[in-house]
Amino acid sequence: MTKKTVLDPITFEIMSHRIAAINDEGASTLGLVTGSHIVNELHDFNTGLLNAEGEVVITGLYVMQHAISLELVVKHILKNYKDNPGIRDGDMFISNDPYIGALHQYDVAFVAPIFWKGKLVGWAGCACHQMDLGGPVKGHINLNAKSIYEEGQVFPPIKIVEKGEIRNDIEKEYLIRSRLPELLGLDLRAALACNNVAKRRVRELIQERGIETVLAVFEGMLDYAETRLRSRLKELPDGTWRHISYLDFDKLYLCKLAMTKKEDELIFDFRGTAPQALAVVNGTYPLMWATVLQVLSSLVCYDMPTSTGGMARCVKIISDPGTVIHCTWPAGVCKSTTTSMYATMNLASVCLANLLAASEKYRDRLMAPWKGSSIGDEIHGNDQRGDPYLTNILDYLAGGGGARSYKDGVDTAGFLGAPGISISNIETYEMKYPVFYLYRRQERDTGGPGKFRGGVGIGTMYIPHDVYKIPHKVIISSGVQQPETVGISGGYPGSAHVIKFKRNTNVLDLLKQGKIPSSLDEIDGKFEAPPQFVDTYLKKTDVYAASGQGGGGYRDPIERDPVLVLRDVTGYLVSVESAKETYGVVIDPAHELVDESKTIERRAEIRRQRQSWPK
Amino acid sequence: MQSLNEYLQIADERGKRVIRCKCGYTLGPASDNYKAFALKAESPIQKAGPNVNPCRVGNDKFVFREFCCPGCSTLLGTEIALKGAPLLWDIQL
After folding, report:
1. If you average pLDDT over residues B23-30, what whole number do you get?
2. In this structure, what DSSP letter does residue A145 have?
3. A469-476 and A533-539: which strand pairing?
4. Nearest to A325 by CA among A292, A353, A355
5. CB within 10 Å: which end of chain A, N or C, has fewer?
6. Can you give the pLDDT at residue A63?
7. β-pairing, A315-318 with A265-269?
8. Could you state, in order of their start, the residue ranges of all structural domains in chain B?
9. CB A582 within 8 A of CB B47
């Protein structure tokens, strides 16, 4: 038995921050090398450092699930690849298998073992979002898929770098199917560079401080996260919290969670969730697992290092295989990350928020759920030069943050568990793709009302530019029929997704007259409200407008300070009508004042109405 | 006293555990869902806000429920449900 190295607290603190800084440097490298705006502007990626057993020692601060799920990729490699093809110094593996650890086929994971004097001591990894990996349709979404076989192709972990040399045969195999091989190839090199930098820095640290010290820091970080979380859970009340959520695709899929907190453990029981769909919206177990940890880390472990491997030791997940959030092969999953992933996130967010609400000590740290899903919006065709283009318009990642128990949620914050996420510049989309934005803004009346309001979501309106038509515009959006973000303790839900078209419009004439419309109502044409998923087009005179979801509200909206409601009205975040109807605050818009007597009257009227409700 | 949230607590009332609003109104036994004892409104889902399915996609399958305290009229909770679905027992301590 080897003697365990004991670190003094100061050394541990300094070294654990050094480990986090190494991980961050890997992330910076990835962003500098890639040419993809999805990585370097939007930050849909992440990095992680893992111990020799594959537990995540630290995640980066971008999309946490990308890093959390690396644990399952590494554990799969350790379990299955030790002898053949072997795990050796200088190797690197690539995989997009959602049933092993990638979030969906388009979030490709790269992991590299770190050796010291012939011994495996850890792993460096990253995962980033890709636009096209081949398959029957351009991009991600094949709405006609009946299984994963009709979606983007899946590959298990493959050794793409061997003894420090990239394998040309594997690289060519990886790139050949993609319709965007240059971009994919650049991202591949960026991911390899990222892992190489992280590996080199860990080795330098070992050289400087000794292997025993570095390994003790790895284990210490995991133990610290576990100990801190267990200690916090012990302070929180025992009980069971439940939530249900509906994922709407070809039909409604019920998703259920009963979360039980007992002493220092959390049990997430998803049984009773609807059977899986054939394809597109399902999520795999790794996605569910990573999402639970992401939410837990964000809502309960907000003041702890993101050593999710240690947090995972406090969590038990129970679920039925074959369900829409824990699907089994060959269920398709190509758009899980804007659908079932959010269903799991919503379930866990609500239960954990209500757990914190029950604690006098931690209630002031609770957050209502953030936006409850994302609009998947893909466009592809040939641009004005005849060159093919293909992208996701990922503006709807900028959802509203959930209201906090002492403050409003952050407007257009992103999504929970992805503190580094952003959205690409409008100019980037307009430069690379044939689109012209009429607006992109914080959308009024999308944040859930409450004493503290949920953050508002984003709204966009765009038209094709310099092309006759965008021939393919594929939209998939759970959360059109109902908001997926609920309120907490009497707060109202955030908004639902609203998706609209106007066809054969006069928009080009308006632009020629120097008028930039700020609403579909200002444009003449034929109105369309599509269902939650559609494969359509956008002709030169067609206009597309959508608004994303806001965050949930906290507490009774009529408790909100009228001055804050006035601020929201003048700031175009809440309408005069909603101020009166939901908040009970009567605004005089001409003078930008609260009418105090009418507000008192309106709030009394709301209370009287409530007293007339039946039991 | 154990809180359920900002508004509700579990209190002892003549040897029985009950759910009580901060205003002092007793809703019912702690072994039950507080929503069963609250005043309830069920509205079209659009009541939740102007950007909640304004185009009525999907034929209005969902409803918006609100629960308030009979004692002080405070809104204690809201939920989104399919029409006819049972009340969600979301907090059980």
Report:
1. 97
2. -
3. antiparallel
4. A292
5. N
6. 94
7. parallel
8. 2-82
9. no
Interfacial A residues in 518-537 facing B (CB < 8 Å): 529-532
Does A363 contact B93 at a Cβ distance shorter than 8 Å? Answer: no
Say which residue the tokens 């300094």 belong to.
A14
Residues of A in contact with B61 (CB under 8 A): 252, 481-482
Strand order in the sheet with A435-442: A435-442, A458-464, A543-547, A498-503, A526-528
- Residues of A with CB below 8 A from B65's CB? none
Tell me the Cα Rg of chain A: 25
Q: Is A569 an interface residue toward B (CB < 8 Å)?
A: no
Which token pair is A130?
Answer: 């890709």
User: In the structure encoding, which two tokens stand for residue A566, read together?
Assistant: 């006035």
Chain A residue closest in CA terms to B10: A358
Torsion-angle region of residue A138: left (phi > 0), alpha (psi -120 to 50) or beta? beta
CA-based angle A391:A397:A400, to the nearest 5? 160
CB contacts of B38 in chain A (<8 Å) are 615
C-alpha dist (Å) from residue A341 to A255, A345, A355, A492, B58: 11, 6, 21, 22, 22
Q: Give the pLDDT confidence score for residue A1 in this predicted structure.
A: 42
Work out the end-to-end distance of chain B between its first and last CA atoms, rounded to an integer number of angstroms. Answer: 12
The whole-angstrom separation of Cα A133 and Cα B56 is 36
What single-letter DSSP state applies at residue A5? P
Helix axes A70-80, A285-299, angle to 10 degrees: 140
* pLDDT at position A2: 54
**Half-sphere exposure of residue A27, counting CA atoms within 13 Å on the CB side?**
26
CA distance B32 to chain A (A): 13
Q: Mutation test of the interface with chain B: which of A371, A497, A556, A612, choosing the one with the most B Cβ atoms within 10 A?
A: A556
Residues from chain B contacting residue A237 (CB–CB below 8 Å): 2-3, 93
Six token digits for residue A430: 């307009």
Report residue A354 as tokens: 């209500």
Q: Which helix (H) or strand (E) holds A602?
A: helix A596-611
Partners of A250 on chain B (C-beta within 8 Å) are none
Nearest to B78 among A405, A486, A607 (CB): A486
| Closest CA in chain A for residue B91 | A241
Q: What is the maximal distance between C-alpha atoms in chain B?
A: 52
Q: Which residues of chain A have pLDDT under 70?
A: 1-3
Residues 6+ apart with CB under 8 A from B88: A242, A243, A244, B35, B79, B81
Reading the block at residue A292, the tokens are 């639970």
> Residue A457: CA atoms inside 13 Å, Cβ hemisphere, count?
38
Its ipTM equals 0.98
* pLDDT in the model for residue A591: 85
